[in-house]
Input
Amino acid sequence: MPYRLFSLEEVADYLHLTPAAVHGLLKDGAIPAEKRGDRYVFAKREIDAWASQRILGLPRRSLSDYHQQSTSQTRTLLPHVAILADLIEPGFIEPALRAKTKASVLQDMTALADRTGRVCDARELLASLQAREALCSTGLPGGLALLHPRHHQPYMFESSFLAVGRTVQAIHFGAPDGQPTHLFVLVCCQDDRLHLHTLARLCLIVQQTAALDRLRTAPDAAAMHAELLAAEAEVLAAAPPASRRSAGI
Output
């Protein structure tokens, strides 16, 4: 239900935050909300976009805390704590994208996603990716971009998946460190909570492992696939035991 409105308590639960933490964000004007009478309401479409961007910029400790909390929320969506094996296959990886511009990367990654057979409307996906990048680049420091649609509608995909592309030539994609980007992961999830959890998992892999270096030098799609699964296993092995709800995102 993309047009759903959350109450303060509901949005706190959705984002793995305490109500007090949401109050703090409201006080700082740091979370999208609308005041109706004496209460605040939160549009799900706006919250999803806000949360996606916030996850991409979380420092390591906050990201780890959020990831612990979101892990339990996705157990009913995927059967294993390790999620990448359920989301990506070697055939969903292109190690030699020929794109030379930001626009052509989005086009090529959409075409790669369409070849998986899980995209319902490739034109709609491309438009949503373009709308998301118009808000703010999904490029991260270190040469990776985590592409995802502006809004996550269940009907956009037959099932959730990831597509990975590695460009032959580095592309200036708007990463905060000002460096070019070689690696692109397209996150296509039917469920919003799975989407946020997958973003957190991928960001942890970037922060805690040498996966980016290994992905740049892997000889083919099969090797890149193996490196992704190995990096996820490394992150999960290092994760602390699940704890009580923390500050969330």
About this structure: The longest strand covers residues 161-171. The chain has two domains: 5-60, 73-238.
